[in-house]
Design goal:
This protein has about 40 residues and is an all-beta fold. It is built from no helices and 5 strands. A hairpin with a 6-residue loop joins strand 1 and strand 2. The mean pLDDT is about 95.
Length: about 40
């Protein structure tokens, strides 16, 4: 899923790492060789 907005939160479904977007640069976030899941 492409990053679109500052403040979006994502979690890795493998290791549980979480990130919050502070600057939108396009593309997708990847951790443990898998795309991260956007939290609602």
């Amino acid at each position: 899923m492409a990053v679109k907005n500052v403040g979006e939160k994502y979690r890795c479904s493998v290791c549980g790492n979480e990130v919050t977007v502070t600057k939108v640069g396009g593309g997708t976030l990847v951790c443990c060789d898998k795309e991260m899941v956007k939290l609602e």
